[in-house]
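quick one, 157 residues, struct below
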Amino acid sequence: MARRSVADIEKIWSNVEGVKKLSDRAVGIGPFGIGLDGLLTWIPVVGTVYSVGAAGWLLVQAGKARATPSTLMRMIGYLGLDSATTAVGEVIPFAPDVVDFFFPGHLMAAKALQKDIESTHWVEASERESRASGDHDRHLADMRRNPKLRRIVYLHD
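---
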């Protein structure tokens, strides 16, 4: 597996931001937004394909960013509900489409992943190398000084 860098993590964060806006915030109306996910849900099959595809892509990005298991579970919950309402709309027209139109599942999952990325101290080294050089203690101290950080991830492991 290729070694990741902080720039790779920043790119994941940025890409997730794009999907978040495209799916559920393409057009903002006050505190609400409408995106492709809500609009395409009215088109049979196309809405389901988009919803499930975007959900899968977000989960792949979470894997690349080494999201915590709790973040992954929250994302799966949001995306599962979003995709389920879209899929049920294929069988029972209209009612689930209205729910999916107003439920920003992709947005919620993307925000959960972005929060996970922001709460991680990213280190471009392996844990073994950091412990051997004594840098691990410095990384722990950096993390403890910043109350937003909850964990350390070594990108070269």
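Residues 69-91 form the longest helix (23 residues).
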